[in-house]
Write a structure and sequence with these properties.
heterodimer; A: alpha/beta; Rossmann fold; 60s Ribosomal Protein L30, Chain: A; ten-stranded mixed sheet; 18 helices; B: alpha+beta; Nucleotidyltransferase, domain 5; Dna Ligase, domain 1; Actin, Chain A, domain 4; five-stranded mixed sheet; 11 helices; 18 strands
């Protein structure tokens, strides 16, 4: 699978296109943005978005379920895996979703052709969204697009199986997409009032997704005082293979700086500012009317800076005529990750393997273990033992496989085990300093 | 023959030891030390009580020892508090005097102080100390005493040291259950500073770090005022625990290693040297690399100082500590800790000497006793203030104002 991931190619393309367009006449090249909704939830979200069209953004819906596709009010549709599923849906099985997408590989490739930024919108946990969106994302990347996944995770009550499928799908998508913006449905509850109807509740999720697309679109297309462009967005997201958070907030009136910050930090994806604290790169785009003051920009940036002290921050500010007295802030934050490209490639391979059931997906970010067991040598003879569910085509290339590592290390805190941990700047000070500083004593 | 109101007792319930110091005030001078009691502390972790029964019996032992030595009956104590929940921040209070040509009175000052104390802290936080900075009268900064000045707007900056209300109550309840009166609670970091700082150091700007068993308390003084206070719940226990973890030895053995061979300087003289731990309780003999021991301790102490330095740097206070850093608490006895502090803070570092009391015996002139001695000193200062207030209260305020007006002070 490694060979199928052109890690360096998109960056190379990017390098080629930018100077070429600059030479074409110092006019910003018109970017092509495409939003593709995958599966039922993705289709609904994209139809919702399509109701208020955005200039220069194409909306497409793809699904295995022909009936659901029929209901979508989007001009451009594609029925996946017509042969495999006969238009009846994937039945909640990601493998079927994936197979359907593989079947229509050529169609998907055509969809991705010439696109600069591809949004893959999907609801994870089911069959089509979970299975097909990684395939689509990968094709998008191969076509040279910047692929941003925007996915919704299932509610807690949808059961652990769907959660697990969703996590697996998210993992796979992360490995192939440049960045994934992830919105757990469970966080809906924090957003909507108790008595909100289901329809309205879903509308809120759709709005959040639409906001995300619109936010990125604004970043890319609107000329700014302090300009943020495609290249900046690429810096933030390209090859991160990690979750990122996108939040938009708007306020007006005298106290708009304060209000907008409050709204921003209350945004479900910001987790009360925690996301910013963990961010490695943060892109902030402010939009205001012609009356936007330096103190506004300063006030917002100061607070954001305070939340993410260690992050690389890219700032943009834009003026919109109709925006007098208003201030809109869009924040795109990607998680800090020490992984280089090679490691990302490994993750990509790992992600395509079926996840062993005993790995809790929430504990991916353990510090690396200092003792690493040598990976077992996988030969065609013992492949069944190590990977009983590997598809046949994988078994052929088994020599290239790498064993995923279980990052387990239990650090005892000795006598402080039971006391309240002393946390300063995200570090547990009860853990010996030399361990946290990775000091080698031998 | 003995006036109990002249006896001031400081009680520090620390993580490694419980310490009682008895002082006697005579006249207006510094308190005279007449008794000390101490006991190993067994129910405290990171400066906070984890075993009430154990702690109350330990306190009783320490008090009994002090009573015997001082030959007095202790009825009330000034209690030192610490713990990771304690912190400090600056706040601002303002008060509008009704008319522009009115003289600022003591009530106005009280009012503005009350305003300054009303801080947005959250319901469970309790202000332990409110230390006054300078007043601002009609925009004029740096007023030390505004009473008698003319002005319409009176503002004041204060530094508030706060703690979690319930967790502050724990030691108070234990002491009250002995039974024993608690005169007041004092933040350990401030108490230590009172004990070890000279007035000139407070003026020039000094950082006092009390690195005890379970917590590291710190306070910044500048221009005679408290600029910052804070607690890091990391102390000597952490050093011991780090060593125990690395060498895989029991805590007691690690403690012994720390006390006998510890240090924070990894010089050439320790390179490659090993110590042999004698076999105890049938455990096999163990050899310990001295360089590793020093390096582990160095990392921990360095990190602790760096965290404090970062915090002060964030608040632009590093310029305020020109006169240096004073280290007290048990960890001040670690060899070369002063050099480490000089490296991190880039100012001279001193070991805290308890100058605040006369009669301090040589045995007590140890950095570990700074807090308890500071508590007595704090008590003595408060006592004086109280006495003055008591005299003031004898004359009703109205009468006082009338008299003042009669004599044309207005």
């Amino acid at each position: 699978m490694q060979t199928e991931l052109p890690q360096s190619e998109p960056a190379g393309l990017q390098a080629l296109t930018t100077p070429a367009s600059a030479a074409a006449g110092a006019v910003k090249k018109a970017l092509t943005l495409k939003v593709i909704g995958v599966g039922g939830a993705g289709g609904n979200a994209v139809s919702h978005m399509a109701r208020t069209p955005i200039d220069g953004v194409d909306c497409v819906v793809i699904n295995t379920d022909a009936a659901a596709l029929e209901r979508c009010a989007v001009a451009h549709k594609l029925n996946l895996g017509a042969k495999l599923t006969r238009g009846l849906g994937a039945g909640g099985d990601p493998e079927r979703g994936r197979a359907a997408a593989e079947e229509d590989r050529e169609h998907l490739k055509a969809l991705c052709q010439g696109v600069d930024v591809l949004f893959v919108v999907a609801g994870l946990g089911g069959g089509t969204g979970t299975g097909a969106s990684p395939v689509l994302a990968q094709l998008g990347r191969e076509a040279g697009a910047l692929v941003l996944g925007m996915v919704v995770l299932p509610f807690d009550w949808e059961g652990s199986r769907r959660q697990r499928q969703a996590q697996l799908g998210l993992h796979q998508l992360k490995a192939v997409a440049d960045a994934v913006i992830c919105l757990p449905n469970q966080k809906l509850f924090t957003l909507v009032a108790d008595k909100t109807s289901v329809v309205e509740g879903f509308a809120v999720v759709h709005d959040l997704l639409a906001q995300g697309v619109r936010g990125v679109w604004r970043l890319l297309t609107r000329p700014g005082l302090i300009n943020v462009d495609f290249a900046d967005v690429c810096t933030v997201t390209r090859d991160r293979h990690s979750e990122c958070a996108l939040a938009t907030a708007e306020a007006q009136g005298e106290h708009r700086v304060k209000e907008v910050l409050e709204k921003l930090l209350k945004h479900p994806l910001m987790e009360g500012g925690q996301t910013l604290g963990e961010a490695g790169t943060v892109l902030v785009s402010l939009a205001g009317g012609p009356d936007i003051a330096f103190s506004d920009v300063n006030g917002v940036m100061e607070q954001i800076n305070r939340h993410c002290e260690n992050a690389h921050i890219i700032t943009g500010a834009a003026i919109e005529e109709g925006h007098t007295g208003r201030l809109a802030v869009t924040v795109l934050a990607t998680r800090r990750s020490g992984k280089d490209k090679a490691a990302a490639a490994t993750t990509a391979v790992e992600a395509l393997l079926p996840e062993p059931p005993f790995v809790d997906p929430s504990v991916e970010h353990r510090p690396p273990s200092r003792y690493v067991a040598p990976p077992p040598v996988i030969t065609p003879d013992n492949v069944d033992q190590f990977m009983p569910n590997a598809p046949a085509r994988m078994k052929k290339r088994v020599q290239k496989m790498q064993q995923g590592q279980l990052n387990l290390e239990i650090i005892s805190k000795g006598r402080f085990e039971k006391s309240e941990p002393t946390i300063r700047r995200g570090q547990d000070l009860d853990v010996p300093t030399y361990l946290r500083r990775n000091l080698v004593l031998n | 023959m003995f006036d109990p109101s002249n006896v001031i007792v400081g009680l520090e319930v620390g993580t490694s030891k419980i310490c009682v110091v008895v002082g006697e005030v005579s006249g207006g001078g510094a308190p005279n030390l007449i008794g000390v009691g101490q006991c190993k502390s067994r129910g405290v972790r990171k400066g906070e009580i984890t075993d009430v029964d154990q702690v109350s019996s330990d306190i009783r032992d320490a008090l009994a020892e002090a009573e015997e030595m001082a030959n007095v009956e202790i009825r009330s104590v000034w209690l030192g508090v610490s713990g990771g929940h304690i912190g400090g921040f600056n706040n601002h209070g303002s008060h509008q005097v009704p008319s522009i040509d009115r003289e600022i009175t003591e009530e106005d000052v009280e009012h503005v102080m009350k305003n300054a104390k009303v801080a947005n802290m959250g319901a469970d936080r309790y202000p332990i100390h409110v230390n006054r900075h300078h007043f601002t009268v009609n925009g004029q900064h740096g007023v030390v005493n505004p009473v008698g000045m003319l002005g319409q707007s009176l503002e004041v900056d204060v530094h508030i040291t706060f703690g979690n209300f319930n967790r502050l109550q724990n030691p108070v309840r234990v002491v009250k259950g002995l039974p024993m009166e608690v005169e007041g609670i004092v933040f350990n970091g401030l108490a230590s500073a009172l004990a070890v700082l000279l007035p000139v150091q407070k003026q020039q700007g000094t950082l006092v770090i009390d690195m005890g068993g379970g917590t590291t308390d710190y306070a910044v003084f500048h221009e005679g005022l408290v600029r910052h206070t804070g607690v890091l719940a990391v102390g000597g226990d952490h050093l011991t625990n780090d060593l125990a973890y690395f060498f895989k030895v029991p805590i007691s053995a690690a403690e012994k290693l720390k006390r006998e061979h510890g240090g924070v300087l990894v010089g050439d003289d320790v390179k490659g040297r090993t110590l042999t731990l004698p076999s105890e309780h049938g455990l096999p003999e163990k050899s310990v690399n001295l360089e590793h021991l020093r390096r582990i301790m160095k990392e921990r102490v360095e990190e602790t100082f760096q965290l404090i330095e970062e915090e002060l740097g964030d608040r632009d206070l590093m310029n305020c500590v020109r006169a240096g850093v004073v280290i007290c608490g048990g960890s001040a006895n670690i060899p070369d800790v002063l050099r480490m502090a000089e490296n991190v803070f880039q100012v001279p570092a001193y070991k805290g000497r308890t100058t605040a009391m006369s009669g301090t015996k040589a045995a007590l002139d140890q950095p570990e006793f700074a807090t308890a001695i500071g508590l007595v000193r704090f008590g003595a200062q408060q006592g004086r203030a109280r006495k003055r207030r008591a005299i003031d209260d004898l004359i009703p305020r109205r009468v006082k104002e009338t008299i003042e007006q009669l004599f044309g002070r207005a």
